[in-house]
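Whether sequence alone determines local backbone shape is best considered at the level of individual chains. When preparing material for the folding task, we compiled for one chain both its residues and its backbone structure tokens. No coordinates are needed to read the tokens, only the vocabulary itself. For completeness, the protein is quoted in full, as a sequence line and a line of structure tokens:
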Amino acid sequence: MCLGVPMQVIERDGLLARCEAKGIERTVSLFLLQHEDVQPGDHVMVHVGYAIQKMTGEEARSAWELIDEMLAAEEGTESHA
């Protein structure tokens, strides 16, 4: 299964961006979004170090809600094993 992580762009330097999600910062390649106007404050979906899609803040929040639900369900399953 492939999982993309929504992150917010903090700063941009050419085709690289410093992005943050849940207190974790990463340098992300914007190579695949060269055609997009990605600026600080924007949200992107990140997969293996590459921003693969620009998204709205609402889309990012919805994705994190789903990820948090999956993690909570997994933790509940492990504690009953």
